[in-house]
UniProtKB/TrEMBL annotation:
Name of the protein in question: Elongation factor Ts
Keyword flag Plastid: no
Chain segments carrying region Involved in Mg(2+) ion dislocation from EF-Tu: 79-82
Family stated for the protein in its record: Belongs to the EF-Ts family.
Family annotation (SUPFAM superfamilies): Elongation factor Ts (EF-Ts), dimerisation domain (SSF54713), UBA-like (SSF46934)
Family matches, as NCBIfam families: tsf (TIGR00116)
One Pfam family hit: EF_TS
Source organism of this protein record: Candidatus Berkelbacteria bacterium CG_4_10_14_0_2_um_filter_35_9_33_12
GO molecular function ontology, one term from the record: translation elongation factor activity
Length: 157
């Protein structure tokens, strides 16, 4: 049987439903680390089921690093409600920081990179977590990264 403390801890980490957390804890025989892995796998499965849904809303975020590097990224989601969601806004902001510091060549390159704020997580893993938390399809559509004195090249997938 899952304790309230275990459920609360996993809910804070994943935003998964209480029912999903309880079933994961039961499947993991009460081991929170194993339950977390089970929830992550379920989140990935849920994320893959949403990829065919249309994304008409989203955000364009900018970042300027000391006047030397500029980044513009477009991330799409299904609704304006999610586009204003705190987790989504933070995700998009963290993407511009990732692009500024890691200089990916394309969206495909970006999603395979290790996330700069969590070494054991890729941008694809981070994207899947946000999809699972928001319940919507989310797409990193395109970005531009400019560096003073460099070439201005649009980077799409």
């Amino acid at each position: 049987m899952a304790t309230i403390e275990q459920i609360k801890a996993l809910r804070d980490q994943t935003s998964a439903s209480i029912a999903d957390i309880q079933s994961s804890l039961v499947e993991a025989n009460g081991d929170e680390k194993i339950a977390l892995e089970i929830l992550k796998k379920k989140g990935q499965i849920k994320a893959s089921k949403k990829t065919d849904r249309e994304t008409k809303a989203g955000l364009i975020e900018t970042y300027n690093h000391m006047g030397k590097i500029g980044v513009l990224v477009e991330v799409n989601c299904e609704t304006d409600f999610v586009a204003r969601n705190e987790e989504f806004v933070k995700f998009v902001h963290n993407l511009v920081l990732q692009i500024a510091s890691m200089n990916p060549e394309s969206v495909d390159d970006l999603i395979t990179q290790d996330y700069i704020f969590e070494n054991r997580k890729t941008i694809q893993n981070y994207l899947e977590e946000i999809i699972a938390k928001t319940g919507e399809n989310i797409i990193i559509n395109r970005f531009v990264r400019m560096e003073l004195g460099g070439k201005d090249v649009s980077k799409n997938s």
